[in-house]
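Known limitations

Files may contain more than one protein. Parsers should not assume a single record per file. Below, a two-record file is shown to illustrate correct handling: read the sequence, read the token line, then continue until end of file.
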Amino acid sequence: MLTGKKIVITGGTGSLGQVLIRRLLSGEMGQPTKIIVFSRDEAKQHNMRVEYMQKKVVTDEVIYRNFEQLLEFRIGDVRDFHSVSSCLRNADVVFNAAALKQVPTCEYFPFEAVQTNIEGPQNIVRAIRELNLPVEMVVGISTDKACKPVNVMGMTKAIQERLFIRANLDCPDTRFICVRYGNVLASRGSVIPLFHEQIRQGGPITITTKDMTRFLLSLDQAVDTIFAAIKDGYKGETYIPNVPSAKMTDLANVMIGDRPIKTEITGIRPGEKTHEILVSEEEAYRTIPRNGYYVILPILPELRRNDAENNYLSKEYSSADYLMSEQDLQSMLNQYQLLNIDPLDSPKELLR
């Protein structure tokens, strides 16, 4: 599907971006002619350059011949319209993975989250609309926190979803779709690296509330969801993975094992939920199963297809619904080699 395409990944140096790039380079979705990593962190870009130079994806002249490579690195910021519009020129496919995603950070710096998570997507839409750019598809990466949001991060991501859905009316030649998923195992800033570090320090493991549950999926499952949306999604649809969830107390118990480490309940952090939701009760009436995923049909009636399915969900899809046992959790962590790994290892090494 992506053979011969020029692809832009905003926030391409993040945890998801790195796995997405690896999967795109594998050729499973076809062979693109160009993958542009668009981000504002030159150090992370340099580290990726060196990594792919060693794999012979780019040459040893990567800094001076950057724009001739299959994998191109471009410094820029989704907050800046001119930077975005320059990067999207002649692009065929855009993955918007750039985001401020740490819940407490967004609570303390809400307007920073607005600029990245709302103005960034709007700059993508504006560039395509005002400059009449030949972009075929835009995929917005969202989060379970965008569903019935109670924190700034989720609120801004919910607006991103609506901006991209609405953009299908403004840019009829571009297909805008979204994917929404929960906690990614061992991604930067997530709970598993935190627990590993607390275990390494001798404890305690801190848990905000004993009832807290979270959806859990790997970075590859997140990319699987993106690829499913590309293959089967229609304009304005939002793809949701069907993944398990777990209590954080059970996760802590499995990771502690027989070590003499205690857990400590610290209380809900600013903007935190006890349970996450991937499909709300209000969205359920327009959410259908499709090829192993849930698909939220567009909220705007102009984008609904006449032949759309009608086997809608009967209730919301919450992380409190189908919890894994501790045995299931242990099997999952063993599968991804996340139980007995040095906690100083980077997330990309954990999940490669």
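...continuing to the second record:
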Amino acid sequence: MKLWEKGTTVNEAIEKFTVGRDRELDVYLAPYDILGSMAHVTMLQTVGLIEKDELPVLLDALKKLYRKAADGNFVIEKGMEDVHSQVEFLLTKELGDLGKKIHSGRSRNDQVLLDLKLFTREGIREIVNATLQLIDTLLAKSEQHKDVLMPGYTHLQVAMPSSFGLWFGAYAESLTDDLELLLSAFKIANQNPLGSAAGYGSSFPLNRQMTTELLGFSNMNYNVVYAQMGRGKVEKIVSFALANIAATLSKLAYDVCLFTSQNFNFVTLPAEFTTGSSIMPHKKNPDVFELIRGKCNKIQGVPQQIALIINNLPSGYFRDLQTVKEIFIPLFAELHDCLSVATLALEKLQVNENILEDPKYDYLFSVEEVNKLVLEGIPFREAYRQVADKIEAGEFQPEKDLKHTHEGSIGNLCLDEINTKKTVVFQNFQFEKINDALKKLIG
């Protein structure tokens, strides 16, 4: 069944090519397509396009389909072009001509726009929750190991004292900023395109504000041409925000891989979190973090892929946009897996508490010695020269008693402040408003 079918048989090879992976990927959109139809028919009744006694019949049938889709039992049958065709076919099969009324005032163009936005909203919510769990794990590890010193590096050369409190806390705050960017992307995604039809509106007296409220959107895409132009743009913006989270995860994974090597020996993964070698019996490889790094680096390429697909398209709908779904929809599950596994592994990560006993790290404290001389009244450049001379002569003896007090330093990690930043950005997503609206719609 094709919603545009007019009696012409499409060449089989052409049909297979143009349908592409829609049947496979549209299964992920099914619950959202049905929610959109529920909001749409509710609005159609208020403007006289569906009779009052017809609405509860349609809603009851749609709710049954929604429960089926939410449970993972919705199937797009062979011969169906997409999820929109399948839903309308099932309604028509059950309700006859009444099922054919649901398409009034909309196009597959604004249907898929809506489906993708609802899918994206839910996907972002799941990513936010997974990121919050990782942030909480990092903050807990930071507090637990706040007094354990480790080397800090610049140019991969021993530089200054750091601590595991600083290291874990740095990634917690980085992810918090990543959520700020995701919040901006979420606000752009959380606008209702329904009613824009094929990108030029409808002569029906649609109530777009009503469907905006029914579906829990914070706003609508007012201009119907821009609503259609948002296809691809929203996916690019959201994927860029997700790529920032992936970039933070990739850097963290690189650190862990480096720090678990015998040459560093800063941290250790339990044996059950490592893999082995087929020929080297001693090997315990940090494959989990290597795969996180690889997957997250792949995710960082998605915004560029989407940009290349949509960059040279003029306004209006083009079938090129179908290919965006193939790289955008799987993005959420892959990043979610990386976040979840990283959280699990970091919870079990073991810290070496005696790293700085190795004399090769003595020079970490050279700046501390310079600062000590400055506090005694010696000009900084002269203090620097005195310490440098001691180092060159092999006479430098470090004092390892650190007294860092300023905000964000070894002695003042500001973990409560980072936690507050995290809480505030989460609250600004206002997921509860969306949940309330959809619960009311589903009944």
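Parsers that stop after the first record will miss the second one. For reference, the second record is described as follows. The first helix runs from residue 12 to 19.
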